[in-house]
Amino acid sequence: MIIKKITKTVFVGSGLFLMLNACGISKGLENRPNIAAYDTTLPEREQLSDSSFTIGPNFITKNERGLWEMYVKGNPMQLGLRQGALSQELFNQQEAVFLKKIDELVPSKGYQNILRKFLAWFNRKVYLHIDEQYKTEIYGISKYASPDYDYIAEEYPRVLYFHGAHDIGHALQDLALVGCSSFASWGEHTKDGKLLIGRNFDFYAGDAFAKNKIVAFIEPEDGYNFMSVTWGGMIGVVSGMNDQGLTVTINAGKSQFPLVAKTPVSLVTREILQYASTIEEAIAIARKREVFVSESIFVGSAKDKKAAVIEVAPKNFGVYEVPNANQQLICSNHFQSEAYADDKKNQRHILESHSQYRYERMEELLEEAEKVTPETVVSILRNREGLAEKEIGYGNEKALNQMLAHHGIVFQPEDLLVWVSSNPYQMGEFVAYDLKEVFSKRRGGHTSVAKTELNIAEDPFLHTETYRNYERYRALRNEIEQAIANEAHLAQDLLSEFTALNPEYWEAHYLVGTYNLEKGYDRVALDAFLEAKSKEITTLPEREGVEKQIRKLSRRLK
User: From residue 374, how far is each of 145, 420, 457 by CA, in Å?
Assistant: First the structure.
């Protein structure tokens, strides 16, 4: 199903590419930022240990919880070159991991060749929509990209393409790359009355993609200092806060597949973080940028002492705020502002997806919390149950903790405090950082800048048999999916073990049903599909797919 979706999209894009190959593709591939005013000398880094490097006051180091902490300052070219030099190994690993994921999804060399042509056509105008300073910074980073992937595109356009990968993942909802959850509480709802924000970033491109998270502290020559949780080669922002106490996170909305790339959302949020100190200023920046997918930009503000959601789309724009008396704001993956009240795609998404379910679960958990604290926020982000505490299986996308998050994060903007989860998922220890301290007294590059006395402990669930069973389940799921794809044989004992490891998750029974159906074991397949139907199925289309198999097998077995 996934490969069919990608293949169809790629072929459509390639057909358009062949018809419209005079529409500026070469301009897009050849465009470079104007770097005449910058010194482009590649900096030399000093290695302090296996996991600590410096370039003057700029540094990267790995802390005890496995998070990489990076600090860089300078003009756009310096920011790019220094990030690239300090994180070169991480950058190269990240690119290799991401492209390996693409190879798994599109294994055919022929299809990959079509995909390369599609990327060139799809990104033909992206250079027109990205601010010159960010193109310059990306150009600097691209000097450290691996030459091994030049067959896809040269280093600079290739790194530019990667900044839109998050957006494309949103557009291809069938890839299950995204399903983020965010919320904010303030005033009477928090213990000290201060604004608190929590979010799970559920962008999944394989376990290896989330292995080397970077907590980046950026001091640009122009604009505000800021932090973000990122990965090698990425200058955009998916979760971050600046030194004015303004925070941004992004949540996917329902998008049609776009026909041309414009401004990647992560670069819109980067601009907001670098130049906005209030919600009004953030709205003004978002309004002037053209995006190519639908997205909710969740903004928190220490100055405004509240949060709001900016809802952007290629042909629409809205802002959603709650009355300040409510002092609570929730965001999943559908739009809430008046601008989208009659949007049929949004309405259908609410009906068919798991977004509304997670929204209601956040409501439940926030209502149960008397006074929200950072620890409360973390406990909500880690919650694995469904509505009314229903057991819905581990890994179910209806849960806030889908057991696949790239990271979880907590902001306390008025104190410039942030907590970032360490592996695995959002269940490792949340490491605390004080932006006032980070940007005022750096420690030379070989020691962590974390404020460890404020860390929030790891989830005890990690030490349970249930968690070990879930990790075993994930391994077997990959094996079963491969067996189905390759028409290989599996022992029924292994299939029984598989469902026993995660018995409440509908997917386990569905995969067993699919395997047995393809092997011609109709009665066994029907029983498995009936069991899947009795569970909390993630989306309406998936439920309809299960019911279709049940009807087909029931007729056949009469």
Answer: 38, 11, 11
**Residues ≥6 apart with Cβ < 8 Å to 220:** 73, 74, 75, 76, 79, 274
Question: Which two structure tokens, joined as six digits, stand for 125?
Answer: 């105008």
Q: What is the CA radius of gyration of the chain?
A: 23
Phi–psi pair at 463, nearest 5 degrees:
-105, 20
Element (H, E) at 551: helix 540-556
| Secondary structure of 309-368 as H, E, C letters | EEEEECCEEEEECCCCCCCEEEECCCCCCHHHCCCHHHHHHHHHCCHHHHHHHHHHHHHH
Task: Identify whether the C-beta of residue 373 lies closer than 8 Å to the C-beta of residue 190.
Answer: yes
Q: What percent of the chain has pLDDT over 90?
A: 76
Structural contact between residues 502 and 534, judged by C-beta atoms closer than 8 angstroms: no
Bond from prior residue into 424 cis (ω within 30 degrees of 0): yes
Render 110-121 in DSSP notation, one character per residue.
Answer: HHHHHHHHHHHH
Could you tell me which of 287, 207, 275 has the C-alpha nearest to residue 244? 275
Give the CA angle between residues 310, 340, 269 to the nearest 5°. Answer: 20
Cα gap 400→361, rounded to integer Å: 8
Six-digit token pair at 37?
């005013």
Residue 475, token pair as written in the block:
């391994």
Tell whether pTM > 0.85. yes
pLDDT of 70 above 90: yes
- Residues 317-368 pLDDT 10s: 999 999 877 899 999 999 999 999 999 989 999 999 999 999 999 999 999 9
pLDDT band at 418 (very low <50, low <70, confident <90, very high): very high
What's the confidence (pLDDT) of residue 324? 74
Q: What are phi and psi of 182, to 5 degrees?
A: -140, 150
| Residue 291 structure tokens | 């995006």
Give the pLDDT of residue 558: 81
Residues 6+ apart with CB under 8 A from 390: 536
| Mean pLDDT of the 487-507 span | 97
